[in-house]
Amino acid sequence: MASNISLQKKYRPEIDGLRAIAVLAVIINHFNPNLLPGGFLGVDIFFVISGYVITQSILSTKSKNFWKFVSFFYEKRIKRLLPALIIYILVASILICLFKEDASDQIKTGLLSLFGLSNIDLFWKSTDYFAESTSLNPFAHTWSLGVEAQFYFIYPILIWLIKLKSKTQKINRTLFVVLISLSLISIILNIQIYYRNSMAAYFLMPTRFWEISLGCLFFLEIRKKPYLNIDFSIYILSGIITCFFLPISAIPFSNFLIVFLTLFLLVSAKEGTKIYSVLTNKYIIHVGLLSYSLYLWHWGILSISKLTIGVHWWTIPIQSLLIFCCAFLSYEFIEKPFRRDGSFFSKWRSFISLTLFSSAIFSLYLPFKEKLYLGNTSLNNNENWPNIDNLVDSSCIEKEDQNTKKKSICIYQNKNNVRTMFFMGDSHTLTLLEGALDISKTTFSNLDYVELIFPPEEIFLKELKKEDIMILTIRYPYYFIKNWYETYPDYMGMEDKYFDIWVDKLERIIKIVAKKNIKIILSTPTPEFKDAIEKKCNGQIDQWFNRLSKKNCSLNIAYFNSINGKYFKINKKLQQLSSNYDNLYLFDALENLCTNSICNFVSNNKNLYRDDDHISNYAAKYIYAPAMIKFLQEQKILN
To answer: Is 36 exposed, middle or buried (0-12, 13-18, 19+ CB in 10 A)?
Structure first.
């Protein structure tokens, strides 16, 4: 590097100690979120530290040449992050190809992480970071690297522009004003977007910018006086640890709290304090030095474990040891050598090595992605979803030709064309369609399918005629229950509000259709099995490598419908609605799918569910359909 570039830094060992606390919190949370619900906030600590460290690095770089200035920074970031990331992605890609027949979607996330884009990919896929299914993608955690990479891209350019426009003595002041302004905009964006699309606020750089930039601002302010005179560090560290026990529902408050506590800890934990001695303990510092590799490898090892043997009390010591061994090897033989080497030959050797490894990852994504699978592919033939094109009866063709602007899809048309049953809802309605076809034929009714979440718009009601029936089935817990194991990203944190809006809209629809003597049937939530996401339930795909993770997933019905049950609040509201309106009926799907108060995933060697929350074609035809026909007859809805 040219002599006009100098680096004069003062190493702060307590920062590595803080990194250790952050990464351990993240790892514990990913092993078991119930142990440390807010452990994921360790990533927010990393963001603050990152801002502090890169500002220290950039401002100690003296160069009058733009390309040397930015290339020096980018080179350091690449050498710091990319080698370990490439090796991790290559190894994890091979492993997931061994145990997942088609891992192209996951590998795509890994490939995009090499370009700092995995956070955008995850957002684009409407990924819920806290959903169980996300833990099966060994590259989902690279979203945070994407946020940092995008920040790193613009930050040195921003500083260079400020240098061009400002006098030397005013550079820091101008940078401070610019960063504080951008941080305020980012905070406002974060708050505004979170309540509209929580995963956009979680994954995207503009809504995370403030966390890194506050670390930058912090460095600018404390260079002359890095510590407070009063020692509050023990209280601040206690506050940080308390944050790790806050529930997910505490977002975004918990994000703001952890960021500001981190800033205060950095300015409070000076040499001679008890917290400084804790943070600079040699073992804690060593964990801090391993933090990047620990962060990379822990998620992948847990993700592959969930695809194979699972995570149990007896596997945790083995998995923990494997995580630390992989992290140690990554740090000693990948991170450190690449950081140290600065010769021209070493740079070209590094470039060629990284290119070859990257090419290997691309080969897994393209020609070899399904060639490494160790399982029996014949066992992976999951039950097909009902295909609407295959279900549509020829009797519908003439009807559709005459009414091309219909909001619903005709499935079956009775020749007498008396009443129509409109099966309405999300994928929980789609999975019922084979049973719905049996219901319509048995009751001599037409059958139409309407895809929606909220009750239909009033314009749709013009399609309805006297004595039609609307059957509404959606996945209520996903949209309207706080802290459910999977949540609808757009409603996260506002589930109660959206349920109230949903109910209000339903009531308006009920009153409108009552004038036509149209009846509405609400189907209550069906049982859901969290463990089925990771294929843990008996009856799911049984490969040789996942047998140790199998279990009986049956649940007592009280888990859902008791006074403390998961569905109690929603079911109570639906019951109140049905008692208030003569044309509204409540079909208890839970009671009909659960036998003798037990909700089974498998019955008589038949899977009742295709996954964690959708009933199977078998259950739709042989349990749901007969129960609904009986319900229609007993309630005299067909009269």
So the answer is: buried
